[in-house]
Specification:
By secondary structure, the protein is an alpha/beta fold. It folds into 3 domains: 119 residues, Rossmann fold, CATH 3.40.50; 121 residues, NAD(P)-binding Rossmann-like Domain (Rossmann fold, 3-Layer(aba) Sandwich); 139 residues, Rossmann fold, CATH 3.40.50. The chain is 40% helix and 18% strand. α4 packs across α7 and α11 crosses α12. The termini are far apart. The relative contact order is 0.10.
């Protein structure tokens, strides 16, 4: 092979797509166990590699040369084969600084908490300190500063998650309660799948500037690809590739009253974008083995809502979809958080006089005007944008 990503569990990686845009192809995913690492690197069947969890430190003994920044950090995320052997670099450093700047987060004079002590954390610590942070503190499960006593640290202003907690497929995980850090002015999570971890969803709800790991992933990939190919391109290419990557992986989630056209519009959007179309009501019926009217009749609305929440949680942890949701799904705020983790939420607005009621238990048994009046604030609060269906 020419290029690839070396790690332990790589099913979620966006790197092949990103490197296809950067021209470092063919690019393969190389999942190895720890005892296979040395033999693979010595064999040398590659021109360049990116390295991810858990091997950023483990690869170092097998390298012939280590660039100064990687030596200083103590972790390597990029390997290039040259005539004089294997060279190790760390492009996470500049990739992380690019992500922070992209989000408008400055480290100068700030107290920074870095969650995790692995290879990615080492690059973050060096980068934050190099960017003028007043203090950089590392939080780990077993360290002197841990997730129990971290709340005793006053004045933390920037929080960076450099652990895999919250990463797909375990999307719900988080290490701390952001609301307890009253001085926090910026949050960066190195995770890019999902696009919005619980930590970042908390930051959004608290109005704190934030960045996910996708901008860092694209930026470090650009710097790595330049090393692979022996070229140096302007950083402006990073934003172009970031936009294309977001377009590919982001969900489009449609909300609105029953009968407003979510399914019809969603299918058209899916056809136009090449994304998969998913209807959560259809999945609820499939999961229950009967129709939604029968679920309401046999078990009531609460049972339906519980099934709906399970389906939305499962569906919205995936990416690259157009998702049509049930009319009342936004009444559960946890559903909305799940929709946002990978998606842009669009409110399909339609005149209530045009809404059909057949096959829709609540629409048939309730006054539509009153139902719409009750739900409208929830639709507006959940939506990133509004689409009129006339």
């Amino acid at each position: 092979m020419m290029y690839g990503l070396l790690g332990a569990h790589l099913g979620h990686s966006y790197s092949p797509f990103i490197h296809s845009l950067l021209g470092s192809t063919p690019y393969e995913l190389v999942s190895l166990e720890a005892d296979e690492l040395g033999q693979f690197l010595k064999k040398g069947d590659f021109k360049g590699l990116n390295v991810t969890i858990p091997y950023k430190k483990a690869v170092i003994p097998y390298l012939d040369h280590i660039a100064p920044e990687a030596q200083s950090i103590g972790a390597v995320n990029t390997i290039v084969r040259r005539p004089d052997g294997l060279w190790g670099y760390n492009t996470d450093y500049n990739g992380f600084l690019y992500a922070a700047e992209h989000a408008g987060i400055s480290f100068r004079g700030k107290k920074v908490l870095v969650l995790g002590s692995g290879g990615a954390s080492a690059a973050v610590q060096k980068a934050a300190a190099g960017a003028g942070a007043a203090e950089v503190l590392v939080v780990s499960r077993t360290g002197a500063l841990n997730y129990e006593n971290v709340y005793d640290v006053p004045g933390a202003e920037i929080i960076v998650n450099a652990t895999p907690v919250g990463m797909y497929p375990h999307n719900r995980g988080k290490l701390l309660e952001l609301s307890r850090f009253s001085s926090c002015r910026g949050v960066i999570d190195l995770i890019y799948n999902p696009l919005m971890t619980p930590l970042l969803l908390d930051a959004r709800e608290l109005g704190i500037p934030f960045s996910n790991g996708l901008s860092m992933l694209v930026a470090q990939a650009k710097y790595a690809s330049d090393l692979f190919q022996g070229i140096q391109r302007p950083d402006s290419i990073i934003d172009e590739i970031l936009e294309k990557t977001m377009e590919k992986v982001r969900n489009i989630v449609l909300i609105g009253m029953p009968g407003c056209g979510k399914s019809t519009i969603g299918k058209k959007m899916a056809a136009e974008t090449g994304k998969k179309f998913v209807d959560t009501d259809a999945l609820v019926e499939e999961k229950a083995g009967r129709s939604i009217p029968d679920i309401f009749k046999d078990e009531g609305e609460a049972a339906f809502r519980a099934l709906e929440a399970e389906v939305i949680a499962d569906v919205c942890k995936e990416n690259g979809q157009v998702v049509a949701t049930g009319g009342g799904s936004v009444l559960n705020l946890e559903n909305v958080r799940n929709m946002r983790q990978n998606g842009t939420v669009i409110f399909i607005k339609r005149d209530i006089s045009k809404l059909p009621v057949e096959g829709r238990p609540l629409s048939k048994s309730h006054d539509l005007g009153e139902m719409y009046k009750e739900r409208l604030p929830f639709y507006e609060a959940a939506a990133d944008s509004v689409m009129e269906n006339i």
